[in-house]
Each structure stands twice: as C-alpha cells, then as structure tokens.
C-alpha cells in the first residue's frame, strides 16, 4: 500500500500505544501489514522458516544423481539393466507433483502452518527411510523397490514446500520493508534450492573421498542420510510459526470456484505455461555440462573428481540467483524474468552456433565460461522470479491452490523434458547436431517464454499482494459473493477486543 493509505492507520496505532486508556483500539484489519507492532526479527524469521525448506528440494534432487552413479558402480548388472535406475531418480517428480496439488488444497482450506509442518515431517521420516532402506532385506531388487517407494513419498513432502512454504513466505514478506520484499523471498526460496544443489555436490565429493570407492554402499547411505538434517533443523521453527497475517485476513471458508475460474484462468494458464517451458528446457542445460566434464576429466577419472567438478556446474547458479534477487526489487519480477530468459535464449543460440569449436579440448575454458553465463541468466530470470510471479499474481484466499497447480506444471515440464530432449539427441544426424538440437529447442522456448511474460503477465510491485486481495474482493462483491465471511479472528484482534471492553 502507498504511504498515503498506510499512514492514517499507522498513526492511529501509534496513538493508541501511547495513550491506550484514552483511545479505542484501532481495528487490526485496518492496520497495514507492514505497520503492525512487531520487531525486525518477528517480521523476518517467518520468511526464513517458511522458505528455507526448499534447500531440501535442491539437496535431495542434486544428491540423487550422485547416488545413482554410486549404485550403478555397485550393481552394474541389476541396476543398470533394469528400470530401477530410472525409477529411483525420477519417481520423486511424481510424488512432488502430487504433493504440490494436495498441499495446495490443504494450505488454503486448512492451514499454511500445519500443512508445512506435516510436509516437513514427511521429509524427515522418508529421508531417513531412504538412507536406511528399511524393509529391503538382502535382495537387490528389494533394495531398489524400497528406494523407489521411499523416494515417491519423499517427493510428496518436497511438493508441500511449494504451496505451503513458498506461499507463506511470500505472504510474510508483506510485513517487511517495502523495496526489499522480493529479494528476501528469493533468498529463501530459489537461492536455497541452488545452494542445496551446490551442497549436494560438496557432500558427495567429501563422503566418497572419506569412504573411498571401496565403500560406496556406506557412501550413498550417508549422502541420503545427511538430507534429513535440513528439514529437522526447521521443524521447531515451523512448529512455532503463526499463520501469516495476510492469510488470516483473506482466507475463505466457501470457495465459489466458478467465479474464481472466470477471474483467474487466463493468468494461471500463462504462469503455468511459463513454469512448464522453463523446467522443460532446463533439462538440456546438463547436456553441455556433461560434455565439458567429459573433455576435462575423461573416462578414467576417479569418482570423486566427477563429483567435484559438479560443484562448479552448480555454483554457476548462485551469482545469477543472488543478482536476480536485487534486480527483482529494482525492476520488478515481470521485467527481470522476461529479460533474463530472453538473454538466456540469446546466449543459448550463440552456444549452438559455436558448439563445434567450444566442444573441443582447446576451447574448453571458453565453453565453461559461456555455460556459466547461460546458467546464471536462467536463475537470474525465471529461476528467481517464476515463484514470485505465481505467488503474487493471485489473491491470498486461493494462493495455495493457484501456486500448487503452477508449480506442478513446472515439475511435469521437467519430467517431460527428461524424455523428449534425449529423443532429439538420439535422432540427430551427427554428434555435433546431437549437442546442438536440444539447445536449439530450449533457446527457442526461452525467447517464447519472454514474449509470453511481456504480453500476458501483470506488473508486480511491492504491494501487489494487498492490492490483488482488494481487487479480488471487489470482483466477488460485484458478483454477489458475501465477502464478510472471509478472514479469521486473530489473537491480536482478540486482545484488542478485550482491551476495549
């Protein structure tokens, strides 16, 4: 809200705090979210507690690649020559999509706090089961089946981090200082995912060096077991959370879905399409990294060296995500997303044109630099801002379901990309085209995504959540919906009412 709107209510609150005996307590719902009497820490820690759990998404999705490599070395016949390898690595996608949809509903209908708390418990329980593979017995097939089942349920917990955790983090940023809200959302969502990937590569490298390749059976279990630590460290903070104040004020008890669909279907379709395309194309980014890794370390390098170079691959994401957090506050999520993904597409086409020269030992250093720029731009644009756009382009009352659907479409896009882009490589007429074709597809989709964003995504400012809630209420009232049924009496309201009696 603007200062002109915020200042009278804030002044009323200040006067009441100075002279409570002479004044009636102002209605808490009339006080702007960022003017509520809270300390800086009280405003900040809910954003951290809600968003930081996405570190687990990055870590668990990053570490499974290393674990898959270890299992392939341990069981070269049974693991590689069956569907086990594919199932273990990809089944979490299915669970994540299901979790995003389920927790999207529960976070709106029931509670942001308790939906997030349950998702955290699922991550802890099934993360521990993955590491121990309990119930697998001595059978290798039983081991793979157990890992597949536990990874599926682990994915459900990861899915809950999006519509419960990220949504609550976005709503909590409304209590922070205007001009800084987007960066704090990004620091504890996308930046956490990227940091999780980097840490997963560091952990895999250290564990394999410590155990040596003779003890990979212990190494992969340790790597998965460490994944339990991040959600466990957040469990108490999430237990102590209160519901975001914006959610308390705007939640619905009855959902007029026909009105909601008429109001938001176009916007949801666009946001979901952007997330789908971005995650679909992002799979091809690993194709180039695999190529330059093969050039640098060759086929005979020890396992730990391969994991160590993956640290560099993932580290490219961090500067892009960090810079994008500040640019999102300066230029807005829409412009940062659109220009970031557009420039990524341009760099992608440059890499396609120079692929024949770049993919050689002589130019491997240039290859690494250009690939790093390409990866950083992906995080600076859509990586940082698609979650912001999804969380701030709809009303609070339906944000969990809206965000959950958009995020689920992103995961489906990634899943589809893992199958479609390798087909493009396989059907290429020569090795050079096998490297170029997936990036031609991905770069073209980047440009298309930029156009979608410029044309159809609304401008998103610091106060968009509050203004969007107002716009949604006005629409509902114009269509005969009783908006007085919205909201929940908060503890602050009860204190104010008691003080006025």
From TrEMBL:
Its main location: membrane. It holds the Pfam family Sugar_tr. GO terms for molecular function: carboxylic acid transmembrane transporter activity. InterPro entries: MFS_dom (IPR020846), MFS_sugar_transport-like (IPR005828), MFS_trans_sf (IPR036259). The chain crosses the membrane at residues 45-64, 84-104, 116-137, 191-212, 218-237, 307-327, 339-357, 363-381, 402-424, 439-457. It is a multi-pass membrane protein. One of its GO terms (cellular component) is plasma membrane. It is found in: Membrane. Gene3D superfamilies: MFS general substrate transporter like domains. One of its GO terms (biological process) is intracellular phosphate ion homeostasis. Keywords: Membrane, Transmembrane, Transmembrane helix, Transport. Belongs to the major facilitator superfamily. Sugar transporter (TC 2.A.1.1) family. This is Major facilitator superfamily (MFS) profile domain-containing protein.
